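Hi F.,

I've been meaning to write this up properly since the lab meeting, where we talked about keeping a consistent format for the predictions we share between groups. The idea is simple: the sequence comes first, exactly as it goes in, then the structure tokens exactly as they come out, then a line or two of notes. No screenshots and no reformatting. I'm using this chain as the first example so we have something concrete to point to.
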Amino acid sequence: ADGADAQWRNPAMLTYLEGTQVSVGAIYVDPNIDLEGTSGANTPASSKDFAHSAVIPNFYVSHKYSEKLAIGFAAGTNYGMETDLGTNFGGANHGNEASVVSMELNLNAAYQVLDNVSVGGGIRYVMAEGSFGATAAATLPVGTTLKYMEGDDTAWGWQVGTAWQINENNRLGFTYKSEVDLTLEGYAKGFAFNMANPNAHKPGSMDLALPATAEIASFHQLTDKVAVHASVNWTDWSSFKELVADFPGEPSNLIKEENWEDNYRFAIGTTYQMTPKLALRSGIAYDTSAVSEQHRTATIPETDRTWLSIGAGYQWSEQLTLDAGFTYILAKDAKMLEDDAASAPFGGSFEGEVSGSIWLVGVQANYRF
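Output, unedited:
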């Protein structure tokens, strides 16, 4: 609870922030993901560094309205990804590109119901766009679009949280964010939708659920200089079953089966107050894969991940604090087999292994009025 950004993880934390505070920052994400495998009759198929990097901005404001009531505004994102394996990828018939870009605006409020218990909640306005594509790797001219669909939508969600100050040095919190159901309105094209003219645009839509999440977290001030914090996070990825194209007055068309499962993230971190102005931070987390080997796909190569993080905060003045963080995510090597019957005639099955890592660098400024 050291800045207006605390409300993003748990809106109840707003009651811990005095006066009016503003936090603004950005995170640079640089994935380095490679795929090696074979397609069809043992033809080599690979793609290097096919996940795109991104800059993720964020902005938060908090205001202590009264002794017990606080309000806040937040802008950021919970979900986003983009992969492009290229039209020459040997398994492109099963999928060669996918993207989800989302932005979220929150209005939050929190109230201290007891001396040691706060509750909070808020409404979420989510703007999102997404796409998925697959091209022929055989039979048709290589690179011919088999299926491609893109669209965008806006939707509402909600979140709630609570914080229990067990004693002066120990705190426990719980947060739940609702599922957000999107219908991405746009167009489709490809051989599967129009054999005579694969590049013709066809109006349609695709449903996409951004999953619900829940988190329980704790904070423990062990000494004047050392604090430990931990969390367990659950994400309802089992809501991500398939991507289906819907067209007015026509039967739906299956684009891609996904069959994801719920996943969990376990994290523990430390803060060391080295000097009155400088705080050092470190942490480790383990993120379980949301998909089994049977259902893993090249376009979204989800796998187990280990997070290693370090950071620092510097009290520049009584009003201004500067933060920086660095994370290295090591993705576990994972196998996959794609052999769906609809795509197989255009390049055969694909069998391979994904490997890689992700770098994240974040900076933030916090100002207290």
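Notes:
The chain has a mean pLDDT of 94.
The helical segments are 6-9.

If this format works for you, I'll send the rest the same way.

G.
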